[in-house]
Amino acid sequence: MRFQVRDRLLGFGEDYWIEDEHGDKVFLVDGKAMRLRDTFELKDTQGRVLIDIHQKMFALRDTMVIERDGDVLARIRRKRLSLLRNHYRVTLVDGTELDVSGKILDREFAVEYDGELLAVISRRWLHVRETYGVDVVRDDADPALLIAVAVCVIHLAEKEREED
Fold first, then answer.
1. Which of 37, 65, 68, 119 has the most Cβ atoms closer than 10 angstroms to its Cβ?
2. What is this structure's pTM?
């Protein structure tokens, strides 16, 4: 499954649709403005909140939290000691870890579990400016969760670049 994501979706208070490979709207990213912490909601086409994404308050390192129905699904933070490429660790609530690595700011990275590819995020497939694709490789993977992971790591990488 391939999805198209507008690159400007990281603007808080702005809403953006994520489309499938046929151009049909699938998910709405609702950026929540005027909040103390960075917050997004990933909604379906009927407006139901599928995933809630927010920045963890009072964390030593920037951490994003992904929740579904009020329950934590995952925590995302930059991996320590990643010298050559951007690396992020996604820790799922059951202790499973996903590895996100690549050129995050260039929108060229992958999400893997135990060396197995789950999703590829890339601008190369698309000709629309300021758009990147999220290609969910495994049929049994949760597309909403993988899109939320992509949103989080891009947001964390952008914040880190602004702070430098």
1. 119
2. 0.85
